Amino acid sequence: MPRLFRTGSSLLRACVAARARRSWSVGGTAALLALGDEALSRLRLPSRVCLCSVAMKNLPYFCSGEVVRGFGRGSKELGIRTANFSEEVVDSFPSDLSTGIYYGWGCIGTGDVHKVVLSIGWNPYYKNVKKSVETHIIHTFNEDFYGEVLSIIIVGYIRPEQNFDSLDALIAAIQHDIEEAKNLLDLPEHQKFKDDNFFHRGCVNSMTNGH
């Protein structure tokens, strides 16, 4: 199964961008909306900075792998289509990469590069027993792409995983995440990755570091 991995560091730029956007929100307004004002008032600045640091230290992260069938609830229950990586690819992610919601760029095969938002973890609402990486490509596709190769560059972190009281609350949070990702990816430090050579390489049969 073709896949590529590379890790780097954009911690300082990401944390500064997060702070500039809204009060050390660890990624922006989606985290603030998800936590609520009361919860935020109990958080201390060092804790938020630490959370951002842990999440961002492996970024940008480059990954390519085959799209496999997931739980089938993205489009059916949530109305938000996602592409899933295989367990093998998920297990290859850095063990210290924080679970949560991330954003970046992605493309199917040799197609166009689009903005993406993705969930890494166990999806507390659904109580998954296996860790998953589910990517929502912010673009409308007319066909399924199971078996195709999805290449992504993860460039930023929005918020940690959390549970929700209802399906509607989960959907609302995901929609906020999507809007937050779209806005953050317009920043120059993230926009540059859209044209990265990673998306224009041929497939390889082994894991590598770098381009």
TrEMBL record:
GO MF: ATP binding; metal ion binding; riboflavin kinase activity
Domain Riboflavin kinase: 56-186
E.C. no: 2.7.1.26
Catalysed reaction, written as an equation: riboflavin + ATP = FMN + ADP + H(+)
Pathway as given in its UniProt record: Cofactor biosynthesis; FMN biosynthesis; FMN from riboflavin (ATP route): step 1/1
Matching SMART domains: Flavokinase
GO terms classed as biological process: apoptotic process; flavin adenine dinucleotide biosynthetic process; FMN biosynthetic process; reactive oxygen species metabolic process; riboflavin biosynthetic process
Gene Ontology CC entries for this record: cytosol; mitochondrion
Cofactor(s) recorded in Swiss-Prot or TrEMBL: Zn(2+)
Pfam family, one: Flavokinase
Alphabetical UniProt keywords: ATP-binding, Flavoprotein, FMN, Kinase, Metal-binding, Nucleotide-binding, Transferase, Zinc
UniProt xrefs under Gene3D superfamilies: Riboflavin kinase-like (2.40.30.30)
Described purpose of this protein according to its UniProt entry: Catalyzes the phosphorylation of riboflavin (vitamin B2) to form flavin-mononucleotide (FMN), hence rate-limiting enzyme in the synthesis of FAD. Essential for TNF-induced reactive oxygen species (ROS) production. Through its interaction with both TNFRSF1A and CYBA, physically and functionally couples TNFRSF1A to NADPH oxidase. TNF-activation of RFK may enhance the incorporation of FAD in NADPH oxidase, a critical step for the assembly and activation of NADPH oxidase.
PANTHER family according to UniProt: RIBOFLAVIN KINASE (PTHR22749:SF6), RIBOFLAVIN KINASE/FMN ADENYLYLTRANSFERASE (PTHR22749)
Full protein name: Riboflavin kinase
Organism annotation: Pseudonaja textilis
